[in-house]
């Protein structure tokens, strides 16, 4: 399983504009992180996605987008796994 | 010392499900202890807290993968995270459902307190 996850993350990293990818389990433990994604923040990312699901219960897993002038961070939780993708705006 | 305790009490409120933060010396004697009423009393006893610094971390260090930094123990109702900051130990006691990643990340914030205490312990 490790290799498959790693392969997916590496594929994501080759997508245009992607500068970092992080995967965490439901306990907030970092499974893998690449690029600018800091494994220290896996707990906070998981917690944020969990909080977002409580805003509209029963409407599926939301996608959270943080955006500033230079970059974006997309967070999505599915089947207990949290995926964060860091992108540049260019 | 009271200020240190207040700072640790603030950190305690930062993570949902975190029940206690205890900073102990090698013998499990608490130097700073902040706990909610719901924290399990058994896990706050020096006899439990000292097992990490006196035995577990030393033994784990012999596995051939370098010095042991932290041990995460997950029980059926609680989780305990113990961090080796020789000569001191940080113990975090939380409910099973608490976010382990966030708990581990508290290490950076608690390091300030531990460094302050460690210098006075060595003195």
TrEMBL record, chain A:
The keyword Membrane does not apply. Its main location: cytoplasm. The keyword Nucleus does not apply. This is Late endosomal/lysosomal adaptor and MAPK and MTOR activator 5. Belongs to the LAMTOR5 family. GO terms for biological process: cellular response to amino acid stimulus; negative regulation of apoptotic process; positive regulation of TORC1 signaling. GO terms for cellular component: lysosome; Ragulator complex. InterPro entries: LAMTOR5 (IPR024135). It holds the Pfam family LAMTOR5. Keywords: Cytoplasm, Lysosome. It is found in: Cytoplasm; Lysosome.
Automatic annotation (TrEMBL), chain B:
It holds the Pfam family MAPKK1_Int. InterPro entries: LAMTOR3. GO terms for cellular component: Ragulator complex. GO terms for biological process: cellular response to amino acid stimulus; positive regulation of TOR signaling. Belongs to the LAMTOR3 family. This is Uncharacterized protein.
């Amino acid at each position: 399983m490790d290799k498959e996850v790693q392969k997916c993350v590496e594929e994501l990293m080759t997508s245009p504009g992607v500068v970092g990818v992080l995967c965490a389990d439901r306990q907030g433990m970092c499974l893998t992180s690449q690029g600018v994604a800091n494994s220290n923040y896996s707990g906070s990312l998981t917690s944020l996605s969990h909080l977002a699901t409580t805003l509209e219960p029963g409407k599926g897993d939301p996608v959270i987008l943080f955006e500033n002038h230079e970059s974006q961070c997309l967070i999505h939780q599915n089947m207990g796994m949290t995926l964060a993708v860091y992108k540049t705006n260019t | 010392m009271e200020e240190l305790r207040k700072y640790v009490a603030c950190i305690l409120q930062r993570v949902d499900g975190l029940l206690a933060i205890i900073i102990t010396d090698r013998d499990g004697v608490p130097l700073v202890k902040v706990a909610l009423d719901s924290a399990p009393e058994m896990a706050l006893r020096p006899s439990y807290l000292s097992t990490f610094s006196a035995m577990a971390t030393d033994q784990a260090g012999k596995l051939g993968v370098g010095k042991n930094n932290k041990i995460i123990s997950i029980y059926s109702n609680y989780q305990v995270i113990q961090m080796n900051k020789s000569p001191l130990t940080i113990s975090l006691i939380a409910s099973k459902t608490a976010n382990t990643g966030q708990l581990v990340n508290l290490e950076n914030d608690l390091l300030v307190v531990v460094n302050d205490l460690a210098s006075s312990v060595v003195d």
